[in-house]
Amino acid sequence: MREISPRSPWAILLIVIVLGYAGILFIAPLIGIISAAFADGLEPIIATLNDPSVQHAFYISFALAIGATAINAVLGLIAAWVLTRQRFRGRRLFDALVDIPFVFSPVIAGYAMIVLFGREGWITPPFAIVFALPGILLAKTFVSLPYVIREVQPVLETLTPEAEDAAYTIGATRWTTFRKVVLPEIWTALLYGIVLTFARAIGEFGAVSVISGNIEGYTETATSFVFRALNDRNASGAYIVSLLLCLISVIILVLMNVLRSRVVRKGV
Question: 17-267 in CATH: which number?
Answer without folding.
Answer: 1.10.3720.10
